[in-house]
Amino acid sequence: MGRLAWPVRPLPDGRGEVWRWDLQTVAELPAARAGLRGRLEDVGFPRAEEDLAAEQLVLAFDELASNALRHGLSPVVATVVAGSGGWLLDVSDHDPETMPTPAVDRDPAQGGLGLHLVARLAVAHGWYVDDGRKHVWACMPATHQDRHPVYS
Questions:
Q1: How far is CA 7 from CA 22, 138, 141, in A?
Q2: For residue 8, what is the DSSP state?
Q3: pLDDT tens string 56-88
Q4: Residue 18: DSSP 8-state
Q5: Taking the complete model, does pTM exceed 0.70, yes or no?
């Protein structure tokens, strides 16, 4: 799944309620995940144990935000746009020179497989640079059954 796993693509048009987290450190991720789960419940999604798609959104949020915090430059902004057909997740940092690079030929016990995981869960994904910030995005389905590619 080399470089093509995170193609350079512009962000899709996302319309809907916007949720945003400004993050400085990995230590803030548990609170951000809890906040995302709370917002999902507020808009009528069942608890994560009952809704695989909601938990996959939280997992993708965590993977992309933690990658940006570990490998990019702070501050990191994680944004979720609640759309009618799913969720648009966009995570940006101040390191436009470093593209997202999925791990290749690495022992899974060493970690670093988050981009592969998000690519498999998403219906579309990509990255782009805008105004000195790198944005890594993924479109996540609203239900587990909606998982089919938007475009290849």
A1: 25, 11, 19
A2: B
A3: 999 999 999 999 999 999 999 999 998 767 899
A4: E
A5: yes
How far, in whole angstroms, is CA 11 from its chain's centroid?
Answer: 12
Contact 75, 24 (CB under 8 A): yes
HEC sequence for 49-104 = HHCHHHHHHHHHHHHHHHHHHHHCCCCEEEEEEECCCEEEEEEEECCCCCCCCCCC
The answer to whether 82 touches 17, Cβ cutoff 8 Å, is yes
Q: Is 20 helix (H, G, I), strand (E, B) or coil?
A: strand
Q: Rounded distance, CA 139 to CA 149, Å?
A: 9
Structure-token pair, residue 123: 């219906």
Domains assigned to the chain: 3-146 (3.30.565.10)
Neighbours of 124 (CB within 10 A): 18
Distance CA 47, CA 134 (A): 32
Q: How far apart are CA 98 and CA 129, in angstroms?
A: 10
Phi, psi torsion values for 147, nearest 5 degrees = -75, 90
Q: What percent of the chain has pLDDT over 90?
A: 51
Cα–Cα dist 33/58, whole Å = 6
